[in-house]
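Work Package 3 (structural annotation) set out to generate three-dimensional models for the target panel prioritized at the project kickoff. During this period the team completed the workflow that converts sequence records into discrete structure tokens, so that structures can be stored uniformly alongside our sequence database. As a representative example, we reproduce one entry of 334 residues exactly as it appears in the project archive.
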Amino acid sequence: MSVKPRLAVTMGDPAGIGAEVAVKAFQQASIYADANPFVLGSEACLKLAMSAAGIDLPLKVRRSVAELESIAGVIELIEPVEFSMDQHVYGQVSAAAGRAAVGYFETAVKMALAGDIQGVVTCPINKEAVHAAGFIGDIGHQEILARMTGSKLTATMLMTEGLKVAHLSTHKSLIEAARYVTKPVLVEKLRLTSEHMTTWMGRKPKIAVAALNPHGGEGGMLGREEIDEITPAVMAACAEGMNVVGPYPADSVFYRAVAGEFDAVLALYHDQGHIAIKMHNFEESITATMGIPFVRTSVDHGTAFDIAGQNRADAQGLGRALEAATAMLNGRLA
């Protein structure tokens, strides 16, 4: 891009660590080098977080994107949802906090769809709070994105230094996730992953597919999914021109990816991919959403209610999510 992209950072649940990691991340000069970030959240929460963390950064409230000045070292804030600090309790699920968190994120999505910003970077929301606020169908960010963008197919990719993992499914029970492993779904997700990674990286990626069953099914003795669904999907993807290999047993494929053999791994259910990423480098791991018409990255941790308000939150993930969003927009994601 010829100009710095404008990135909205959504504060997430006010009862969690979102405000704290936001103010800590905005201390880092590196986040301003290639982007113009600002926050969608609560002025009172950000001030409280700065006070607890001993941070003294200028905080400027703007009424709209048009008023943003993009000044390095200044936290610029748009407060799209009124949140009363009378209702604020760290670490407590509340409908008010859930409503605010969804409001921050929905505002960011609307801005992105209107072309006012180039990317969205999210701090964590709490699923119970979102549900309490009446958003019954919105389990998390990805479901809200699907609803607002009208995207028919979305997928999550987790990233950390040396490892990228796309997910066939995320918010499904284990038994439902296993039933979801079918050739058509696999080919769709491989196509989505290959297309997005080609854009983000500036080249075609090599993608390995993890096996579902132990030892890759042992020729059908431990399950036939590899024979009946996964291998045919890999062959179909290759026939379309994608660089896809596998399936490889899950107990070795992630090690091989970290060693540099693959650009990414397609995991077949939530924990298969999440455990690998978090064991490898939890602190700097982030999430990206595929299948939507703009860049969205996120921290890979939750609201951390148990440490909220205690100045113990690590902001590395948010810093990395900002850097990744900028790299993706410029086609140079490493």
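The radius of gyration is 20 Å.
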